[in-house]
Amino acid sequence: MKLGIIGFPACGKTSLFNAVTGGVQPVGQYSGSPGSTVGVMKVPDPRMFKLRDMYKPKSFVLAAVDCVDFTGLISGTGAAGGGKEVKGEILGKLREVDGIVHVVRAYESSEVPHVLESIDPMRDLGETDNELLFADLAQCTSRVEKLRVQATKPTKTQEQDKKELATLEKVLKILEDGKPVSTYAPISDDEKRHIAAFQFLTNKKQVVVFNVAEGDLGEGGKAAELEKKVPNAISLCAKIEMEIGQLPEAERSEFLASLGISEPASARLARQAYAALDAIPFFTVGEDECRAWTIHRGDNAQAAAGKIHTDLAKGFVRAEVFGYEELLAAGSEKELKAAGKFRLEGKEYIVKDGDIVHIRANTR
Ligand SMILES: Nc1nc2c(ncn2[C@@H]2O[C@H](COP(=O)(O)OP(=O)(O)OP(=O)(O)O)[C@@H](O)[C@H]2O)c(=O)[nH]1
Ligand SMILES: [Mg+2]
């Protein structure tokens, strides 16, 4: 699973990328070729920290997803940092991600010029979204035009072509009305498949991040006001988030305590972006290792076993499962077992967010 960070030039993408990946990429400069900077975003999960306290494992691994820092995208004919071709390349690469973190500049700074004449977050958000919509519209139009000709010919694929055309005509209408593809609810599996094949940019879940100045954080400030305007939005100060991310662990908690907060905003963002991917974690626990693994919501126990090791999926016998909440309520794994809350599940069991799983497999 992969996230892409997009937005106008100098809106704070790289600062935020550094904050969530622990990266040290230079900020305040053109990021190079599109999608070239890849990092791993860790997902700080309070449940995992509790499990660490409980099991005191030798190794501790949080859930993680890949994260790509994209080059700034300029709206209209202005093209991107390196020209029109770069814009096409950015949008092409962006099709490969599963979810988008859309950074919008809301901080004022005389030192960092904005490509447009003023700071206007809602305008910038709309402009970048329009770029995504235009790209989808162009892609959909060209396919529809091709299919309109192709579907009239008595070829082997004619029936398939007609079906695909019918789906895409509906998608095209939505895009022409200025609406994202995500507002279209496909009915049949065929329709779902046709749409998925195009990796439409406006069909990807987005988390919007308003990057505000330090002074605008807090209740009743500009940050809170902006957050209310857009669903699934978060506001933070990317510059500070990056600084916090680069502090040594011990100093970090001291610094957060001095601000009167328990975690940086980037932790909340990581969880929100993770959820936008329809990702959920399950946990494995023990004195050797406590670890969070990522699966898609709806995956079964065998698929989950395969995340740990392909051999565990192949030789799957059963999964021993208990919920994180059940463990907490019981006080310890021993007491939980004594209370009979330890479940044995088969391959088809749908793993839930926060399940603690132990796979029994025949690996010979
Ligand atoms: N004052 C202030 N400056 C910020 C903030 N966030 C980013 N900056 C500054 O803005 C400049 C650009 O930040 P980056 O994180 O590199 O922005 P970017 O979106 O990656 O920029 P490009 O990759 O060039 O498009 C840097 O000089 C940052 O220090 C902020 O919240 N407040
Ligand atoms: Mg950058």
Bound molecules: guanosine-5'-triphosphate, magnesium ion
What's the helix-strand series?
A: EHEHEEHEHHHEHEHHHEEHHEHHEE
| Overall tally of domains | 3
Instruction: Specify the biggest β-sheet.
Output: 6 strands, mixed
CATH topology of the largest domain: Rossmann fold
Could you tell me the mean pLDDT? 90
The strand count comes to 12
- Name the overall outline: flat
Query: Order of strands side by side in the largest beta sheet?
Result: 2-4-1-5-6-7
By helix and strand content, what is the structural category? alpha/beta
CATH class of the largest domain: Alpha Beta
CATH homologous superfamily (4th level) name of the largest domain: P-loop containing nucleotide triphosphate hydrolases
Percent strand: 15-25%
Report, as a whole number of angstroms, the end-to-end distance.
Answer: 30 Å
Number of helices: 14
- Unreliable stretches (pLDDT < 50, length at least 5) are 77-81
CATH architecture of the largest domain, please?
3-Layer(aba) Sandwich
Range of helix content: 40-55%
Radius of gyration: 23 Å
